[in-house]
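Quick one: structure for this chain?
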Amino acid sequence: MAVAATKKHLEEMVKALNDAYARGQVDEFRQIVTLESDNMVAAWKEGYSNLINADKHKNAQFPPLEAIDFEAGVQSAWSKIKNSIERNKGTIREYNSQVIVFNESKTTKNMYDGIKAHLIDFVQEQLGSYKLTDAKAEVEAGRASSFAAGAGLSDIGLLKKGTHRLHKENTAIGSARLAMTMKWMSKTRFFKDFLSSAEAKTIQDKYGDLLTTWETKGTKKRGLKVTPNEDIKISIGAGKTNKPGDEPEDFGNIIKQVRKQALKWAKNAEIAGRKGSKSIKENAVDIAEHVVVGNLTNSKRVKAKKKTKGSSRGASNATVTSTGKSKKTTKSATAKTATRRKQRTKKGIASSPLHLIGIINKELPDTVRKNMKLPGLENRTGRFADSVQVTDIVQTAKGFPSIGYTYQRNPYEVFEMGSSGNWSSPERDPRQLIDRSIREIAAQFALGRFYTRRV
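Got it. Here's what it folds into:
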C-alpha cells in the first residue's frame, strides 16, 4: 500500500509542478544572459539545417552554407544584436567581439525575438528571391489549420528553433522544480516521515547546493512559488546542446533520484508496518525516557506525575512534592537537605547521559522548528530542523554537563557568525537557535547550569 500510494503522490506532484509551471515563475526574475559568438554560429547553423531538411523543402534548391558563412554572418550582425538588446531594455554588462553579457529584468519574448531576427535577415539574404514563410503564409497555403500551428511549421519558426535559452548551473529550471518538489512533499501528510528519513537525507546530500538557490513559499492548494537567492544565469546557443538529461541539474535526472529514494522509504515502511509493532528506534527512546525518569525519582521526595513504561510514548515530567509532616529545621539543616537533593538530581542525569540524549533528540526537531521565526531562520522545508541532533554529553572540568550537537552544516553553516559570505547575522546563527531549543527541552529535567557546543 505504501509503495502504491507513493507512486500516486509522485505522479500528482510531477503533473502539478511541471516544466512550464516552474519556467513561468523563474522567468519573472532578473536574468544575467551570456551570448558567445561561437554559440551563436552553432545556433544559426542548426536553424538553417531545420529549414533545408523540412519535408516541405525536400525538392528545394537552397544554397549550401558552410561554417565560415555563418561566422561571417554572426560577426556582421554582432553590433546590431547588441543594439536590439538595448532597445528591448536589456542592460549591457560586457561587450566585445566574442561575448555579449546583459541583464534582463525578466524574460520577455521581444528580447529573444530581436536576437533571432538577425538570423532571419541573414538567411533571407542568402535565399534571394525566395521569401521565407511566416505563420500566416502556412495557413494560407493549407499546411496549418491555425496561426499557432503555422508558427512552428513556418520557415521563420524553423530557423528560430535552432536558438535556445539555456539555464545554467544552480539556476536551471530543474533545480527550481526540485525546491518546489521538497516543499510539496513537506505539505503532504503522507510524506511527513519521509522528510526526516535517511532516504531524504540522501537527496539533500546530493542536491544541497541546488536547494539553497531557492526560497519556496505557498501551499499546494494556492500554488507553490520559488524565489531565487541569486540572479538567474542564462546562455544562448544551439538547441542540440540542450538535450534533456545532459546535466545533473536536469529535472529528468533529479526526479529519478527522488522517486528511487521515496520508493525505498515506502518499501521499508511496508516491512515495518507488517511487524505490527513500534520500530526499534521508538522503543529505544521510550526505554531511555523510562530510565531517566526513574533516576530522577529515586528520592522519596520526588514523584512522577504519571507512570512510564519501557515501551510507552510521551514525555513524563518529574515534580517535587512534600511528604510527611512539616518540621522545624535549622538553617544549616535546610542547606544540607538542599545540597543532598541537588546532588541526587545531578547524579541521576549524569549516570544516564545516553538516555537523556535519546529524550532530547526525540523532541529536538519539533522544538527547533517551533523556534524558527523572524528575524532568525525561518522553517521552510523542515530539513534544517530534522538535521539537528545531540551527539554526546560530557562533564566539564568543573562538573557541569556539556551537550554536543550537530546539524547539516552544508549548506546552513553559511548563517553562522564568522562564516564567509553575506548570509550570516547574530539573529540567524543556527547555534543560537539550537542552544535555545536544547535549553527549552532540558528545563524539565532540572539540569541546572550546562553548556552546549557544536561538534
